Amino acid sequence: MDKFAYLLRLGDNALVLSQRLSELCGKGPALEEDMALTNVALDLLGQARMWLTYAGELEGQGRDEDALAYLRDAHDFKNVLLVEQPNGNYAHTLMRQFFFDTWHYFLIGALTQSTDRRIAEIAEKSLKEVTYHLRRSGDLVVRLGDGTETSHRYTQTAADELWMYTGEVFNYDSVDEAMVAVGVAPPAAQLRQQWLDHVSDIFGEATLTMPPADAWMQKGGKQGRHSEHLGYLLAEMQFLQRAYPGAEW
Amino acid sequence: MDKFAYLLRLGDNALVLSQRLSELCGKGPALEEDMALTNVALDLLGQARMWLTYAGELEGQGRDEDALAYLRDAHDFKNVLLVEQPNGNYAHTLMRQFFFDTWHYFLIGALTQSTDRRIAEIAEKSLKEVTYHLRRSGDLVVRLGDGTETSHRYTQTAADELWMYTGEVFNYDSVDEAMVAVGVAPPAAQLRQQWLDHVSDIFGEATLTMPPADAWMQKGGKQGRHSEHLGYLLAEMQFLQRAYPGAEW
Amino acid sequence: MSEEERLFQERIDAGVKIEAKDWMPEAYRKTLIRQISQHAHSEIVGQLPEGNWVTRAPTLKRKSILLAKIQDEAGHGLYLYSAAETLGVSRDELLAALHSGKAKYSSIFNYPTLSWADMGAIGWLVDGSAIINQIPLCRCSYGPYSRAMIRVCKEESFHARQGYDIMMSLAKGTPEQKAMAQDALNRWWWPSLMMFGPSDAESVNSAQSTQWRIKLFSNDELRQRMVDQTVPQAEYLGLTIPDPDLKWNAETGHYEFGEIDWAEFHAVLKGNGPCNRERLRTRVKAWEDGEWFREALVAHAEKHAGKKANTKAAA
Amino acid sequence: MSEEERLFQERIDAGVKIEAKDWMPEAYRKTLIRQISQHAHSEIVGQLPEGNWVTRAPTLKRKSILLAKIQDEAGHGLYLYSAAETLGVSRDELLAALHSGKAKYSSIFNYPTLSWADMGAIGWLVDGSAIINQIPLCRCSYGPYSRAMIRVCKEESFHARQGYDIMMSLAKGTPEQKAMAQDALNRWWWPSLMMFGPSDAESVNSAQSTQWRIKLFSNDELRQRMVDQTVPQAEYLGLTIPDPDLKWNAETGHYEFGEIDWAEFHAVLKGNGPCNRERLRTRVKAWEDGEWFREALVAHAEKHAGKKANTKAAA
Hints:
The complex is a heterotetramer, with two copies of chain A (about 250 residues) and two copies of chain C (about 325 residues). Chain A is an all-alpha fold.
């Protein structure tokens, strides 16, 4: 079930990041940001639903998107550590988004060529959204990095602190490699180079210093070993489904 | 089932306040405070267990302390709004405790004379603890109120902000009145006067200004209409029992 | 009445829309700014009680619908601030008035959302009442406001339907779900009726606003419309309106209903609602935490403009 | 070796306890301060991974036991800081060194607690290892440290039993619970073995500490003791130690075990563990947020002392 595991990773990344963003509803630093954040949260949620639905069908045990989202405990979630990190200040929220969006854009682009037709279709449907996400978060990183002294400092700090969570997506394990072998997923090296090039371009424009590419990187999320943050996120998200088992909403 | 309802209120107050305090484990402003906070949390938890166990037995539906603590949703919790308020800064934590402890001390003292033998016994067992709690929190209010300018300001602000949650315990409804009528619980007027006198004494010593006794007071917790905070507290607290129904721990 | 005022009133009476560039009495301008900005603030603050359940929505589909609704509300805030800006006041000034507590927002948002059913009740009752209030305003005398209302009403009617749909699922659901729905109706019914404001006898400034066509029906008329529309919907859901005095009057063709607790209304208005302090604080905190962000965007734009100008000068 | 040093060593060799007022070599004092304060810091930081589950403990009884354990840890911190203070350093200085990152605490607390089973595994394995480390220290040469260790060990053995009891409930529980227990063992096994420090070949300063009787057994000896004690306990639980090389050697009467990943050990020590940053930040934040509180207590005490003095002067 490597493909099932791979789909869970895709779905969980989108679901958990969407959940983090939706914590900010009505609390953004400007009305336009409120709208944009909710919009990105909504896009990612839509993508999560497509990935999880497909994962459930492939598994063939009758689990739909809600069963997968609401009835798994933390160790069964397969998102990377980056997306479960708390919102922090808005520079953290944005930098987490920019690091994710950059990888996501190149990944989704490559997945449109996946040998799995359904994956290619979902990627095709998501491409316009992730293109917009990347443009938005890159643009904001440039404006904040090259804004005031304060915004530069906040943005640089956010980049430095989140950096150690950026390597996990390129750290392929047997699941990822199996998907590469059958042409379902793109190889890590290609994505990583694209990611580094784009981050480097944007950081250059933003007058930010890029942390070293060979820095120590955290891992474990894809295998279900998360940070302490995920359990709280799930306890909140899953409450109603857990408290009222079997109810229709 | 007025007595059942009354016991739930006693149990839920202790349980929810204990839960709030336990959020601070290892995060107090000094090692001695860490120990004291954990100690108070532990005392209140012990009391909650006795009240809830008795409530469950009285109800006779087979619900034990854990069923009552972990398998009720927010609208079935009957604690007052005061105890579910977030910890805030440490002045808030302490002021919430002092307001609660003052009421709790006089209440528990009166309950040792309850016509319900079991209630009187539980009160008797708790009296030493609540006496210590009151001495501790009153003492700290005095030291912070009459400490530095900053500590005075923080303490006064905390008092002003929490004040509107202090009236609910004296706002008796039919459940409370039924308990007074049969000598199970003490009347409100007596408790309120004791409470006002003690708070006034401590505030005097602390050089704090006591908000007006006739200020607008919030209510609803005792009837299950809570603030938005309680749902989150319960989602976290109840996660394991909800996620693994029927398991033994 | 001056000649200008007479001509202004004639245009209004003739159903001509007033536009931003047109002359208008200062009191008309002020009343509109107050009314539109209060509406805009309500959209913004109104994101919070729903935001409180978005992270706990019970299915991904419901979460998605709720997110979209909250996004619409931010959008409504934007249109409405823009409409107010045509009257010569900036969004920042309006927000400053909100944050200082000087400007009001709808008191209904000072009640807490305590269960998922509240997402249904808010859509059904609160958005329902809002629409009844706003539909006449699509025909109000001030052009930018009237056009904003047309856009807003279209989306609001969606929201009200989605809210009713949540109530329907709960009312048809398990006994716990039905109890949740009834509890939400119990808590939101009276505050929703209060949304229409004091009874006509108590209502100040109504006459002038009516003459200016920025108030087209009286508070009590609109409130009656809400009751008449909602009671059968509640019956269809199998839920009970929490009003023992409610009864159908076959002669008038309207429902009669009980006395509203105006003491509660005024207490909440005065700041004593369960959530007044938290709602305002959340908004103020968002604003203050975001200051460095907004300043950075301005600084970047200025640098950028400066660079462009330099490039031109060098060329 | 000076005459003083010679006499000092003779007393140690004779099993006489060194007390605070006694002469001691500066290096002995420094080594002890480092060792005791590192232990104290570990107790304090060690509250956090357990605090992470106290709000989610699955029964009120388990919550109560866990709270009591965390309270004990704060208490151990207190005894140990007091023991360190007898060597002429203040608690505030020691905490400053912790907060600046200069002083260390046990690396094991840089791993996250990811499920309730981790509360069992920490008690069983981490407290179990701590006891093996600490029991010999009850006989160490420095009196205040030795006495603190006696108190600590008594309570730790409780904690280890309670941890094993949690593991037992899970191992006898549902398949999910058993999986939870196995997963916790998988994650905590190797870090627990690393708690004994580098292998003897790599260990610096050991000889001197051994001579001073503040280190009574080598790291590898203690580690072997832990493995020998724990493997049968895991078998009794029906859990598998995550080490394919683990096997019983009937000749030596010990378990042989696989190679420890020292690269991971050094990475965590260097600050790259999953939680290094968060643990330290949480403590620093608590300390900084509490500054006004600590200052107020001092200010109040000074005023009070002042008043007393004034009263006396007036009398």
